[in-house]
Amino acid sequence: MTQQDAGAEERPARRRGRRPADEVRADVFRVVGEVLLTEGIADLTFERVARLSGVSKTTLYKWWPSKGALALDGYFHAVEETLAFEDTGDIRADLTRQLRSFAHLMTRTPAGRVLTELIGQSQTDEDLATAFRSLYSSGRRRLAGERLLRAREQGQIRDDVDVQVLVDQLWGAVYHRLLIPDEPVTDDFVAALVTNLFDGITPP
């Protein structure tokens, strides 16, 4: 029995009556995030989440069609605050800070291992693949794109630049090193990505 499972047995019984859906989901996200970031996806099951969260398996299956989709939702909420995109008015500094936060999360915390597991499982789990695109990847792209659009409106980026291509150039390079680890993801690597983007690679 893990510490989380023991803690669940020690919790007092929940009060009777139907709880608000947002409260129920919050309990599920908390439990799933804790299991993923301490043990990984292999030990995550609907039965275990139901026991630890006090939410019935019927409810879990109604909201999440597969274990992968449940894991992805819990993962997204576990890392959402860490990966929030700041807007200090300096797009270069904000990009560098956000990419470094992302790289740190992926390489120095269990979240990186969990994300690569989710990406791998999404190749054979259609529900997870759909959830990954709609919840995680599109959400991350949207936040970065919105920040870059504001920078373009402020004259920090040329009007003719496709901001979604910039997102692919920056975050795509980090994902490449995470999934094909021939080279490490370091602060110097992140700084070089941003420098190459803003300063260019041709001689002045």
Secondary structure: elements and pairs:
Blueprint: H1 3-10, H2 21-39, H3 46-53, H4 57-63, H5 67-79, H6 91-108, H7 110-121, H8 126-153, H9 163-179, H10 187-199
Helix pairs in contact: 1-3, 2-3, 2-5, 5-7, 5-8, 6-7, 6-9, 6-10, 8-9, 9-10
Please tell me about this protein's structure.
It contains 10 helices and no strands. It has 204 residues and is mainly α. Residues 8-16 have low confidence and may be disordered.
Structure described in brief:
This protein is 70% helix and 0% strand. It has 10 helices and no strands. α5 (67-79) runs antiparallel to α7 (110-121), α6 (91-108) crosses α7 and α6 runs antiparallel to α10.
Count of helix runs:
10
Major sheet, described briefly? none
Shape: elongated
Structural class per helix/strand content? mainly alpha
Mean pLDDT: 88
Domain HTH tetR-type: 22-82
Pfam families: TetR_C_11, TetR_N
DNA-binding region: 45-64
Protein name: TetR/AcrR family transcriptional regulator C-terminal ligand-binding domain-containing protein
Relevant terms:
204 residues; elongated; mainly alpha; 10 helices
